[in-house]
Amino acid sequence: MASSVQRAIITSEFGETVTIIKRESNDDCLGVDDGVERISTTMALGNNSTTNNTFGNNNELLDCVVCGDRATGKHYGAISCDGCKGFFRRSVRKNPVYECRHQNNCTIDKDKRNQCRHCRWKKCIRMGMKKDAVQKERDRLGRQRSNNHTYRMTAIKSIGRIDHDFDEDDDDLSIMALLRAEQTAKEYIGRQIKLDRHPSNTERVQATLETIGISMNYQLRSFIEWAKDLKGFIDLSDNDKIALLRGHTGENLVLGVACRSLNCDDYLLLGNHYVIPRITADPGLTRAAGRILDEIVKPLKEMQLDEKEYACLKAIVFFDNDNKSLSDPMRVKELRKRIQVNLETYINQQKPLMRGRFGELLLLLPPLQNIARLMVDLVARYNQDTKQVDDLINEMLLSKFNKEFIRYSQQ
Prior knowledge:
The chain is mainly alpha-helical. 52% of the residues lie in helices and 10% in strands. A hairpin with a 2-residue loop joins strand 4 (73-75) and strand 5 (78-80).
């Protein structure tokens, strides 16, 4: 029986220098689990390592110690793939009770890892994943967020280095994945509202130009958080991420306020709970509010748009392959097509009697674009008069061809 040894030195997220020793056997009797569990680790405290990868000395990728899939690094104390990393993280945070339907000794490999969560969880623990490492990461991220209250475009600047957990159980642009991203955005805004003490969602305080600007800033920041939660987006080049984030920001701001206002009586509900009535003291704002209510809110009310359709429509607007700044429009086109197929399939299965509904939703895109242009013009005029538009709004909405912004965002 012949065997070979591979070694890799990596640095964990907590500063450990870790030597990974992988022994591979040519014995055909060894299964995936047996081979994986022959990986051993030795730790040395210190930061002298200059290598941070999951490659063996023959440039072969190491395997996840839990399921045998390709590892992406040392996560929570064990060399693992993104799938097992995400599973462990969710399990620690949600603390579910898993039960095995068999004998508590299910095989956990790449093909069967989703069949028994109980045994997968046990194996994560057995192979060295640590619960407290998840909490340490959460605390670290919390400190980063609190120190980044001003935000600016730091979020865009860092999108190429985001380390997110994506569930391998789902299509990365499935409706469920889009709903999870939407929830991430809502939670982000909720934290900001509590932090800045805005009206509760039961109060109805008319917005001023200042509070409209604050709401727009919240929406832009949550929009970036939403995008960062989509694996299809994270896998794009930095250039294309920036192009998409700036390409249809206005449309998504309009769509967001329209959907929040579906249960409102002739007024728009902003993300920070202030409201814009149909008639205001500002003629330009009155015109924009009226068009949103008549051309977007009204048809969406009549269609009884649900949250899954909204999540898909938002993503379809975002992944626009006609964006002239894209370096790989065909890849973006494929992402958009997948979302459209998912939406059409959902409508056909869940609302089979509503013929033409998919087309009706897409017909909202032209008025959405027109109203977004009107809104951007209003913001531009306000900025020209007052110079009080904050940096994030200025850079995402008003500096579409600002080369300095592109350079800054890619630093």
